[in-house]
Amino acid sequence: MATTTTRTVAVAVDAEPATTSSLTAETWAQIEAISDQVRRALECPVCLTLATVMASLCANGHAVCHTCVVKLWSRDTTQHCPMCRSPMDLRASTAMTVKLTEFTERVRLACDYRRFGCHRLYFVRDILEHERVCAYKPNVECLASTCQWLGTYDQLQEHVLHAHADVFVEATVNHEITYRFVHSYTE
């Protein structure tokens, strides 16, 4: 007798961002993979951002976000798909656009900064705003003149201690890190 195992990845649909702290590593990995696939599917081919509202589809299925459709159609009176140049007709794609919009209103995505520590899920309509202000967004640069490192405040001290042996960290209080570069010379 054959046994079939079914795994379900459930994502809640309520007003608050979902937390993933109670999920197993395997389930979280599945959510991340699905989230990445959904992001790629909802990426506007013109501006390359996550499209929270798809405004038009061509006959070949290429979707373009609302912002880009407005820009493109104001320049191109023939209204061609930017991917394949086939005609785009807003009226013909309304049903699919409505379904895509319904989908984006129900699905949650993992924050793009999850590798830096953000383990929350957000509705598509909310995720861009969250990612703009996410506490885990790597927006702190190392002040060493040739260092290209970019990370978070929480990661800065560890980076400085490991990557720059000649740097002395004086204090870390409320994300205010004071450090000075000490040159060590050997004779």
UniProtKB/TrEMBL annotation:
One of its GO terms (molecular function) is ubiquitin conjugating enzyme binding. The keyword Acyltransferase does not apply. The lineage of its organism: Eukaryota, Metazoa, Ecdysozoa, Arthropoda, Hexapoda. Keywords: Metal-binding, Zinc, Zinc-finger. PROSITE patterns: ZF_RING_2, ZF_SIAH. The keyword Zinc applies. It comes from the Eukaryota. It comes from Cinara cedri. This is TRAF-like,Seven-in-absentia protein, TRAF-like domain,Zinc finger, RING/FYVE/PHD-type,Zinc finger, RING. Pfam families: Sina_ZnF.
